[in-house]
Amino acid sequence: MKLAVLQVAYGDDEPMDERVERVAALVREQRGHDLVVLPELWAPGGFAYREWVDRAQPVDGAIGTAMSAAARDAGVMLHAGSIVERPADGETGPEGRGLWNTSLVYGPDGSLVATYRKIHRFGFGAGEPKLMDAGEDVVLVDLPGGEGRAGLSTCYDLRFPELYRRQLDAGATAFLVPAAWPAARVRHWTLLAHARAIEDQCVVIACNTAGTHARTEMGGHSQVISASGEALAMAGTSEEVLSVEVDMDAVTTWREQFPVLRDRRL
Ligand SMILES: O=C(O)CCC(=O)C(=O)O
């Protein structure tokens, strides 16, 4: 499976609609890959809390429409990162916030194949938990070419291993993790991605943000980690495209060679 992980850098000076056009063009350049992955909230801004209400959109709003077209034009499966979702039908959610941090995944024909609402909200009472409802559903998608199944999660979710165990038990062989993870804790980002890969014997495909926005420096270091815990690719701290060939059969081979999952005691 040929992957392109697009570590997008942005600052406060780039208007959202220009960024959507720029990133759609970058996705179109990835023709020839099977799967393209974008970071969390790259259009509205991962830490631009004050702008979220204004920048919220339904799944089929301007960002979703542009990403669907880019996936179709490039002929790739696209994990388009996440948007601040405000559902068109006025759904408000159990806590009445009416916004979610929602990931969008498109097939190579531009059809929406999955959405995932971030379950663990980051901010300790401010930011996400103040403004957004929490997702409730564990979501997996089929990888292109019958290469296995990927569990969807977002950024702060990476700190909660029980989510990944649930994805594993639902058949995951890979985890797709878009993020807006700050530079201040980037060591946690790389260590936790390795830990999730090793403990669940899954490939971790983790796409972070770069640049500085809303006075927060992003950590970069997007990464693809094999099921045995090797870094197959690791980005630096600027905008960068990681183009990586991943052997998904190696997941099965590793699980047979080192069958640690058989020793779980539930
Ligand atoms: O857990 C962290 O340190 C960062 C999480 C985060 O920035 C997020 O979920 O948006």
TrEMBL record:
<protein>
    <submittedName>
        <fullName>Carbon-nitrogen family hydrolase</fullName>
    </submittedName>
</protein>
<dbReference type="Pfam" id="PF00795">
    <property type="entry name" value="CN_hydrolase"/>
</dbReference>
<dbReference type="InterPro" id="IPR001110">
    <property type="entry name" value="UPF0012_CS"/>
</dbReference>
<comment type="similarity">
    <text>Belongs to the carbon-nitrogen hydrolase superfamily. NIT1/NIT2 family.</text>
</comment>
<feature type="domain" description="CN hydrolase">
    <location>
        <begin position="1"/>
        <end position="248"/>
    </location>
</feature>
<dbReference type="InterPro" id="IPR003010">
    <property type="entry name" value="C-N_Hydrolase"/>
</dbReference>
<dbReference type="GO" id="GO:0016787">
    <property type="term" value="F:hydrolase activity"/>
</dbReference>
<keyword id="KW-0378">Hydrolase</keyword>
<dbReference type="InterPro" id="IPR036526">
    <property type="entry name" value="C-N_Hydrolase_sf"/>
</dbReference>
